[in-house]
Each structure stands twice: as structure tokens, then as C-alpha cells.
Amino acid sequence: MAEAILEVRDLHKHYPLTQGILFRKQVGAVKAVDGVDFDLVAGETLGIVGESGCGKSTVAKMLVNLEKPTSGTIRYKGEDLTKLSPRALKAVRRNIQMVFQDPYTSLNPRMTVGDIIGEPYEIHPEVAPKGDRRRKVQDLLDVVGLNPEYINRYPHQFSGGQRQRIGIARGLALQPEVIVADEPVSALDVSVQAQVVNLLDRLQSEFSLSYVFIAHDLSIVRHISDRVGVMYLGRIVEIGTDVQIYDHPTHPYTQALLSAVPVPDPEARAHRERIILTGDVPSPANVPSGCRFRTRCWKARERCELEVPLLAVPAVYRLADTPARHDSACHFAEEKQVVPPEESLAHPDPLADGPAPVEAAREAAEGPPEEPGPDAAPPDEPGPDAAPPEEPGGPKTL
Amino acid sequence: MLLEVRDLHVEFHTRDGVAKAVNGVNYSVDSGETLAVLGESGSGKSVTAQAIMGILDMPPGKISGGEILFQGQDLLKLKEEERRKVRGAKMAMIFQDALSSLNPVLSVGEQLGEMFVVHKGMSKKDARAQAVELMDRVRIPAAKERVGQYPHQFSGGMRQRIMIAMALALEPELIIADEPTTALDVTVQAQVMDLLAELQREYNMGLILITHDLGVVADVADNIAVMYAGRIVEKAPVHEIYKAPAHPYTRGLLDSIPRLDQKGQELYAIKGLPPNLLAIPPGCAFNPRCPMAQDVCRTDVPPLYEVTESPAPRSSACHFWKECLHG
């Protein structure tokens, strides 16, 4: 696998909670991000999913240096961004740009589109000499599918989807290598979402960009990502390729999350086993001991309360040659297929009466994964005890 | 039939002209039925609901035609006083944003109890007891202790449960839920949708579910009405429409959503933008974005053609519905 362009290790962001007016003392902390590790490989898209409050946006902000991490490192091509001098940091930041969620509030209503997209050049004049800027901005408008003649218009003259294109053009202005996109399509209408997703796809191959794509919509994340990390309450609980996470999830939270996603197929209603979690996400100011998911987990046992599970390949799968072999932070990680494989749903047979199709789907869902390719060995072949109790080191790139 | 909307027209008079938000909508819901009204922003789905509830801001809004028959009675002909007796008691609405729909300075107990005080003339004490019972019914843990708390002390999912409790308070026969789970996380969304479906069965209520999420619709709806530019473009039972849409807009929507169970190549994207309601294109409103558009689509407004009559009625407002259905 290619080299990592971004390496994030043990990243923390704690916001202090204080009490008192004159003598402020810290009484606790909101642990928005509490130990996150991942690598971003050049040219790939890493999706980060999680519910609101899980810290995914805070991670995004730290990647582009809008927030200072409490501790941990972010290395861009080996350089630790958290330790760079302001001058060196400015040079590096050019290469990591962000696209924001809300196209209505992330563009200054008093600036023309040309000024908005050209503003990055004020800060990094080396990218485009003054006389050249207007042409560059027009090129960018063209690249994102807007009419270059719109350069003097204001944001309110554009629709939501067009504004998001402007936001993307601004992100591209400095020819970055990494784009951090925080919920870039969540605010858009369904029919416009697809246009923007396709645009992001096209730009990636055209400019060989690496994306960190943050979203709560699991279907869109699967569509666009090569690898996916699932976050819960400030930590990544499971990370792997899209097939590993979506078709072979081993962490109970991932399984619950996937099973809760409504699938646009009424035939799937009967086939799907849904895991409905009880309760809400605990407050990040008061994180449960041990495994932070245990308060909502149906598998939780005493060990989960005492011991923090590490993000590593679960012992059961360590020697197995199966897609279930990927990092998962659960003491009792176990593969469970919650998204029915598409073969069983793509051609539902309306004429077959009775429970036959349901049976078939269930069998397919519970049986061994029918992945094409030679490496599709049964998942449970090597005994769980055979695995050496090696201590997991840093995260692995899969 | 519990509710029948007939040829409803709603316009908004703005400085820039008349925005035609609803242009002849027909749909009906029966007791125990879930009708999903699907559409993008600006399609008129919420405005129709507001007209049914009688909570449309008038002016600038104006109902310029049509009938809304509730149990055979035309709501649009009722006086405001009579209308108020229907609203809340016989039909209730659940809104998208629970935090801004609840009053932040009143405890949830007071807000739930208000329904009983106003509509049933109960004493405050009795109303509070009823409020606790309601909170139990929508499965809010420790209802007795929490009844005195304020909306900000509840999580998003719990607030939406309180909204549902409030809608259920007087055991209405029809519930209109306008994007009830859009602001919620998926795991909480699943909880809330399950609760709503369960309560609907329990009380045999009619449910109009307004949403833009094709996934949620597939999970709970019996029938679907797809709206575009203030009109219904397709109406069908949920299983039929996902299998073979009879309108190019529905087809485009279905093709443009990424799927959880497959990693597609390029997504199909409907070209262009939803129309400006101040200037809806002549003919079929979808024609500038439609891959199948012909000359007739630019001149003649397509009526709702009947696609099938039995076992379940199905219709499509496309001149070329046959080609769409079989193509």
C-alpha cells in the first residue's frame, strides 16, 4: 500500500468545563475527541461516520488546524503539524483544505464569488500572481461545473447545490493534496446530492486528491470511500475497507448503526434484522468507564466496564483470512452481517409465494460470506485460542 | 375515507410575484394507513400539510381552491372556532425540529398537560397525571421524575418523543408527521420511527408521513405520493413504486441515492435544479430536467394518468408513463 500522507496518532481534544467567575477552576472536561488514530493514504478517500456529538467534526477541524489538539500528533508527510512554527505551518496548511457542511453560512454574503474563491490567494500569493487570479478563479468555476461568467455574482444568487460547488472551488484554489469535507452534501436535496458526490469523485481522479469525508449518512460514505472509520463518543471503534465495515462489521455499534439505516427497498423490510439501540449517546463530559459503548450494548459484560478495548484486529480473527480481520475496538468482537447482500435483494422474485425468499435471504445473511475471489475462506477456521496474545501497537493501515 | 384532499391550490403573494406552492393536489388517507408524501424542498409537501392542519400563515399564504374533506366534512368551510376543535383533538401534527417547537420556559409536563386543560377542561393536577401517563406511553424512562423538567434537559430523541406524546394526547384519528426524524441520528431515528409505527397500529390512526428520505418511506409507508413543484407526479403502493417507477422524476430519485449494500460507480444525477415557484415551466414542470421530455411535455400539463386500478390504484402524471414503467 502506498505511503500515508496524513498520520493521526492518539489525537485528543478536551474542552475544559469551569466553575466560578473570579477564580475559575476546572471541574471536568468535555472529551470531544479522546484518542483517535488513523492514516490517510495518498489518493484514497477515508470516510468517517458517527452520530452527532461523536467528535467527527472536531477531528476535521484539527486536521485543518482550526482547533488545536489537546494532545496527540497529526503528521503530514512526516511533519508534525502540532509542533510546527507558525511560518512553517502556513506553508503546510496550503495542502490541506476544507469543504464545509452548510453552503448557506460558509460563504460571506457580501463578497462576490470571485472574491470568495480568490481569497486563499491573498494568504498564499505564491500560488497565483495578482494578474493571474481572475483567470484562475474562472478556471475553478469551470472545473466545478459553474459558468465562469458568474464570477461577479453574490452567493444569494445561487442555489444550495451551486453554493456547495463554490465552497468546493474555494477548497481547490490552492491546489491542495488533502481535502477534508465535513458533511459536504447533508444540506442538499436528494436530486442535487448525487451531482455534488459525482463532482467530488471526478475531482479526486482529476487532481489526485486524498479525501477525509465526514458524514452521518452511511450510504453516501460507502459510495465515496475506500476505507471507513466508525466513531463513537470521541473514539474510532472500527476501521477498515468499505467491504470490511459494511459487509463484515465486527463491532456491535457498527452493526447497530448499519441495521438502523433505512434501506430504500420495501422488499427488504421483511428480510432485515434490525438492532434498535436503547437510550442515547452518553455525554462526552461523562464518558462511561471501560468500553464507552457498554451502556447501550447488548453484549456488555463485566469486562467491558473494567477494561478499555483497544482498536486492533480482534484475537479471534487475527490469523483468519477473512474480511472480518480488521481493527475493531470490542472485547467480544464477532462478525455479523446486517446489510443483506445485494444478490438476495437486487432481484426479489415477487411471484415466489410464501416465506421462500425470506428464508433464502436469511440463509444468505447468516451463512459464510460469499465474497468473490480466492480469499473467501470460512471466517471461523482457526480456533480463537491459537491466536498469540500479542499487544497491539499503533493502528494498522489495511 | 378519513381524509381526502381534492384539487388543493395554495399560493403565496410575495413582493416578487405569486409563488404557486400547491397546484391541484389530490390524495387521501384511511384509518390505519400510512401515506408517505415524498418530495424535495419547495415541492409543496409541507404547505399541503399546513393547509390540512389549518396552520398556514395567511397572508401571505392563500388557499385559492380545492377541498379538504375530513370524515366527509370540508375543513375549509369551517369557522376558525370549529376548526380549532378539530385541530389537536381529531388531527395532530408532529414537526421536524422538536427543540424549536417546544416552549423553552415551560416544563414538558405543563406543555403536555395544556392539551387536557384547554380541550377537556381538566384541573392542572389531573392534567399533570395525564402528562406522566403520556410520557410513559412514548417510553420516556422515569416519566414521573422528568415531568417537571424543561425541553433543554432532554436529548433530541426524547424531545421528539415528547412531541409525539403531545400529538397523541387527545387520541386523534389522523397524525401528520412532517420530517419527524430528519434532525435525529440514525440509531435514534430508528427508535422514533418504530415507536410511531407501533402507536399508529395501536390506535388505528391515519398517518401522513412527509419526508424526503426514500429509505424511511420504504420502511414504513403503505402508499406513496411523490410531489414535484406543487403537484403529485406519482401515486402508488410502496412495493410497486420501488420496483418500477412510472414517472421519470421518481425513477431519477431512486437512481440517484447511493445504496448501503452496494458500492456503485457513478451515481445517476438528475440534471438541473428544482424549479422556481414564481416561474414554473409551462407544460410538465419536470420537463427541463427530464431525460424523456418531448415537445408535448413542454406545452401540455400531464393529467394524473391511471396506471393500474386494481389491486391497488396507481397513477402517474407523465405523458410517457408507459415508456417509463417498462423502460
Automatic annotation (TrEMBL), chain A:
Keywords: ATP-binding, Nucleotide-binding, Transport
Annotated region (Disordered), positions in chain: 337-398
Gene3D superfamilies per UniProt: P-loop containing nucleotide triphosphate hydrolases
Stored InterPro entries: AAA+_ATPase (IPR003593), ABC_transp_ATP-bind (IPR050319), ABC_transporter-like_ATP-bd (IPR003439), ABC_transporter-like_CS (IPR017871), Oligopep_ABC_C (IPR013563), P-loop_NTPase (IPR027417)
Alphabetical list of PROSITE patterns matching this protein: ABC_TRANSPORTER_1, ABC_TRANSPORTER_2
Domain ABC transporter: residue ranges: 6-258
One Pfam family hit: oligo_HPY
GO molecular function (one): ATP binding
Comp. bias regions, Pro residues: 375-392
Cell membrane as UniProt keyword: no
Superkingdom classification of source: Bacteria
UniProt xrefs under PANTHER family: D,D-DIPEPTIDE TRANSPORT ATP-BINDING PROTEIN DDPF-RELATED, TRANSPORT ATP-BINDING PROTEIN
Sequence similarity: Belongs to the ABC transporter superfamily.
Protein name: ABC transporter ATP-binding protein
Source species: Streptomyces hydrogenans
TrEMBL record, chain B:
Compartment(s) of residence: Cell membrane
Key word Acyltransferase present: no
InterPro entries listed in its UniProt record: AAA+_ATPase, ABC_Ni/Peptide_Import, ABC_transporter-like_ATP-bd, ABC_transporter-like_CS, Oligopep_ABC_C, P-loop_NTPase
ABC transporter domain location: 3-254
Family matches, as PROSITE patterns: ABC_TRANSPORTER_1 (PS00211), ABC_TRANSPORTER_2 (PS50893)
Family statement: Belongs to the ABC transporter superfamily.
UniProt-recorded name of the protein: ABC transporter ATP-binding protein
Native species: Streptomyces hydrogenans
Lineage: Bacteria, Bacillati, Actinomycetota, Actinomycetes, Kitasatosporales
